[in-house]
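#struct-pred

JT: dropping the chains for the assembly here, can someone run the whole complex?
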Amino acid sequence: MSGHSYDAENYWKANLRLIFGSLIIWALVSYGFAILLRPMLAGIPVGGTDLGFWFAQQGSILTFIALIFFYAWRMNKIDEQFGVHEE
Amino acid sequence: MSQFAINLLFVGGSFLLYILIAVWAKAGSTSDFYVAGGGVHPVTNGMAIGADWMSAASFISMAGLIAAGGYANSTFLMGWTGGYVLLAMLLAPYLRKFGKFTVPEFIGDRYYSPNARLVAVICLIVASVTYVIGQMAGAGVAFSRFLEVEATNGLMIAAVVVFIYAVLGGMKGITYTQVAQYCVLIIAYTIPAVFISLQLTGNPIPMFGMFSTHTESGLPLLEKLNMVVTDLGFREYTADIDNKLNMVLFTLSLMIGTAGLPHVIIRFFTVPKVADARWSGGWALVFIALLYLTAPAVASMARLNLMTTIYPEGTAAQPIEYDARPAWIATWEETGLIKFEDKNNDGRIQVYNDGNADFAATAAERGWEGNELSVNNDILVLANPEIANLPGWVIGLIAAGGLAAALSTAAGLLLAISSAVSHDLIKGRINPNITDKGELLAARISMAVAIVVATWLGANPPGFAAQVVALAFGIAAASLFPALMMGIFSKRVNNIGATLGMLSGLIFTLVYIFIYKGWFFIPGTNNLPDTAEFWVLGISPLSIGAVGALVNFAVAFGVSKVTAEPPVEIQELVESVRYPRGAGSAQDH
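RK: done, full complex below.
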């Protein structure tokens, strides 16, 4: 393990950075746009209602899907980059 | 062909399919039984997770909840999907790398503590049993409505079918039946939705139809709906709410709870590689979203449909006469899920918000003496095809779909329960030297017993059965999720910290729930009324799981800091679950 430890540490840090960034977007679309920031987005109309309502019932879910696929794709690349991927 | 014959054909046909799959996918080893041999493709697994996850509540109740609550109940949509982001990034890939069979096993090994494992087993069993009762009862209701049998007999039939494929095939049988059940339930859910969207807006895609123009009035559908409901004294459908703290915490509790539910987590153990566990999460959410993006459209359209059925000439004119009510209202009255009481004896059905003081004057002026029609939220999806005048085969499809949703979730939960009993209790505590064959037999017997117990509880639901959201999600959020996450992301959290953390999160959450809902849910034993003005900071007992999780994290870190570091081999274990290389398939020690 010791020979790898420097790289291993950077691999884990890269993962944590990616998770952190993804979770900020995760929180922004759901707790932000759909709930707390909804009054601020009230001026943006979407089909008979406002953008916040759309995020609460559609947009947040669509964003979650995109986030997981992005994370999986990016993380599999990082695995290869650090040589910890499975054969 | 009569409607009964059509329903029988659809339900019987789908059950036959599940049994054929069971015979084909018989389990030959504990690895087959617990993790389907570990060779499931991520897309297949995503579909199985979709069926595993989407329960009778998602299929039958959720659209009704949203129809009744409007924007405020978006919490369910976000909460029950957002948890997959947490699962895919914070838990699933590492637990897959760990490569064992059950969730308590990870907790026991990581925290080198049989007691921590036991706490996890207890949490798993309480959460899963609460959850499974609702599924069994839901199957009974679907049977009694569509196949005209007693709810108890319907429950028995459902139990026998689950018994065949779950006892025979374990996770292997369950995985492939779940794939079939997903297909049945998603077709059943979307077909009526497409037709209703076409009828109301001309747009065949419900998630777009909801935000487009209502053909009849020329107004945007949601604007039309807001007008209709406010005319009758209800809150605007899209209205914002004041108690945002509670909305945030409730959504967060559902998300963390979703990520911590063992019957979902173990599905990620069935894929061959760590990378596949990540992809599985994405695919699972795609398949779940097909229903979850449609549900809010079904909700708003069904609410509008219901109102225009009652007020065919508009809300300013007279509602329909009771004798002229459509056939589906009469059908559902027989089940007791729709009730009519002619309070002002005018022979018409008045539907309005009689709890709204500002509307009382208008109601009095119109000679109304109270709301006369009570509609159970649960019938919205089930009655949808009848409300929209769809052909009989669509009703048969809905019957098969509702049963598929209930049975697939029940099977997943039963597997989580039986593997905790056979693997964590029997092999882990009682007889560690049991052979693979012996353990497989023990797993089958545990499964059989779990089905019998679940069926009995489904027929005689105890008081806590209605508390799935509080109890199952509360426990998963406050005890299991934090313990699993810290086990991966911290090398410092030790056995004492984790055990005390789980217990304090659990006790904190349960006590808060019991204070408002009664001790052990016994009616009349609550210390405070369960209404918003008595909640601490306006936090409802259903939203407390997220705070419980925080308590768990804080206690675990605090206690670990002042007690000994975990042994070196445990720190190496944590290190090893973080790197995908060398995962191998899930296996025993």
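JT: nice. Residues 307-385 of chain B form one domain. Chain B is about 70% helix and 0% strand.
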